[in-house]
Design brief:
The chain is mostly beta strands and 349 residues long. 6% of the residues lie in helices and 26% in strands. The longest helix has 11 residues, at 70-80.
């Protein structure tokens, strides 16, 4: 008896977990030269003379390719006569300076001394705080200033007048005195081309001038040595006060006008008996003086228990110079015994 067994396949069970990772592969099959690539039509190859340098594959360089015809490109660049512009250097340190739209170099690329003059309407319009290295110009006066750090200082200010410019030792100033001094050293005879001009030889004769008045002639009607008025040295003017046999009274004792100039240099007081007395002298131009015009100060003409008194020391006096038409007044301030007293003032021209 034959028994036949038929196996039937049941349903697939669930997928098991992944197995362990295999060993790491290597880059042995990665080409190290562009020329090793296949199917590279239309791509960069070693024969297309372009450069690929330091390309990285998986952290390691693939190749250091180079341009086989680099020298050919260099010769073409040299043939142009200049190096191409590197735009990264425009306006940069150690680079080159660009031109503006006006074909000019902007001031930020220029040194300070090229753009260090600034102009303002007037001094009041300057900045409150200036900058060093800048010249500030006030257009209303054309004066120039610099900033000192705290204020504006005018540069080489004009003295305003040649009178304020000190004289040097070589280029001396012109003065009338200096010209006259030079001319005095040259007689008229040294001049040339003096035709029709007076010279020493053509000057007319002139009379000798007399040395004193008496030598003049034809002087009728003029002052001469015989009729000229004179003021003698030691001329005296004064006043006499007479009590008529009794004590001379005090007070103002008259005036006198002087028609000439003179100087008071001494005084004298006389009395008929020993007395203590004092005079005061007043002086005023063309108007009667009073005590307000005393010229004696603290040293008035006086007697102290005596009959005579004199002094030529007038240091305490003021205004002892007499002008023509001055009016002199006399006043007896006090007197305790004198009946007749005289005051004299001595004058000199």
């Amino acid at each position: 008896m034959i028994i036949t067994t038929t196996e039937t396949q049941g349903p697939r069970g669930a997928q098991g977990p992944p197995g362990p990772a295999g060993p790491k592969g290597n880059d042995a099959n990665v080409p190290t030269n562009i020329s090793a690539f296949v199917n590279d039509a239309g791509y960069i190859t070693a024969n297309s003379a372009n450069t690929l340098t330091s390309k990285i594959w998986n952290g390691s360089p693939i190749a250091d390719a180079y341009i086989a015809s680099a020298s050919l490109w260099n010769s073409k660049q040299n043939g142009l006569g200049y190096s191409p512009e590197n735009i990264a250097n425009k306006g940069a340190a150690n680079g080159y300076c660009p031109l503006g739209v006006d074909t000019k170099i902007a001031s930020i690329y220029l040194p300070a001394y090229v753009d260090d003059v600034v102009e303002y309407t007037n001094r009041a319009s300057f900045p409150g705080t200036g900058s060093s290295g800048i010249v500030y110009v006030a257009l209303d006066t054309n004066k120039q200033y610099r900033w000192s750090g705290s204020t504006y200082i005018e540069l080489s200010p004009s003295p305003g007048s040649s009178d304020a410019v000190p004289e040097g030792s070589v280029n001396l100033y012109y003065t009338p005195q200096r010209v006259q001094s030079v001319l005095n050293n040259y007689p008229i005879s040294v001049f040339s081309n003096n035709v029709n001009y007076l010279t020493l030889g053509t000057l007319p004769a002139y009379p000798v001038v007399p040395t004193n008045i008496s030598s003049f002639n034809n002087d009728s009607g003029y002052y001469n040595a015989n009729n000229a008025p004179q003021i003698a040295i030691n001329t005296g003017i004064g006043v006499a006060v007479d009590g008529g046999g009794t004590l001379a009274s005090t007070g103002q004792k008259g005036y006198i006008r002087l028609p000439y100039n003179a100087t008071i240099y001494a005084w004298s007081v006389l009395s008929d008996v020993a007395t203590t007395a004092q005079f005061d002298v007043w002086k005023r131009q063309s108007v009667l003086p009073d005590a307000a015009y005393s010229i004696c100060g603290s040293s008035k003409p006086n007697l102290t228990g005596a009959t005579t008194g004199y002094s030529n020391v007038l240091t305490a006096w003021s205004n002892v110079t007499i002008q023509a038409n001055d009016i002199i007044g006399w006043n007896l301030d006090n007197n305790n015994a004198g009946n007749r007293l005289t005051l004299q003032l001595f004058l000199k021209p």
